[in-house]
Amino acid sequence: MTRNETVTNKKPESPFLRVLKLVFVKGGILPWFLFGAVLIFAGWSDSFLTNYNIMLIGRQATYLVLVALGQMVALLTAGLDLSVGSIFAMTSVITAMVMVSYLKVEPESIWVTILLGSLAGLVVGITIGAINGVGIAFFHVPPFIMTLAMSTIVFGLALKLTAGVPIYGMPQEFGEVFGYGLIGGIAVPTFFAAGFCILMYIILARTKMGKYIYALGGNQKAALLSGINTRLYLFLAYVICGGITAVAAVLMTARLDSGEANLGQNFP
Prior knowledge:
Layout: H1 3-9, H2 15-27, H3 30-44, H4 51-76, H5 84-105, H6 110-137, H7 143-162, H8 172-178, E1 182-183, E2 186-187, H9 188-206, H10 208-218, H11 220-225, H12 230-256
Helix pairs in contact: 4-9, 4-12, 5-6, 5-7, 5-12, 6-7, 6-12, 8-12, 9-10, 10-12
């Protein structure tokens, strides 16, 4: 039998199989697990699909979604960040300390206090991510070792600053708006999660940085030979991870209305 006859005798693929391949290969299996879980819980409880419960789930998921987005960037470079829990803790502590300290000096400047405290927390998260990035990208420390060491150091510093005692006294408006605030029945933190999901999609799918990050994860040596500044983009990946984690930590601090050194230890 000739090669042409073999190709001619091959049975055409059914439309049903093509649809299955499109759904499961392109879309992945996880969305179907989520869909199944929603069906099960909706049938189990009449209150599951209520607007209030959906709002609560959206708010509760915000913090993990944001940390997962940051971790995703590190994973795409074939690395990982074990320090996200400690970034969470230190960001929370610094955010609370700055707000409480400034509020004592300027008790009427509520929103300036919230802004300065939030910015201080974000700077802390970005700085920790930058230190991780320098160690991994420029000194070639394995991500596991670098981020594990940073996690231990930062967690110790957070405990030292607070003596293990939560920090209270932040503006009430901070928690009311960024912890429990609603816009159109949707929790304010949920908007942050949705916004960062869209932003990360644009960065990873529509920009050169995203393509370079994927290239780093595929083959770092080949990416270097292709002319990509591998050190820069590896460094930026951990800066992004630290920054997004810090956003989640600030939002969680608003929800708890306190800065805590043991916050976020289960996130890694």
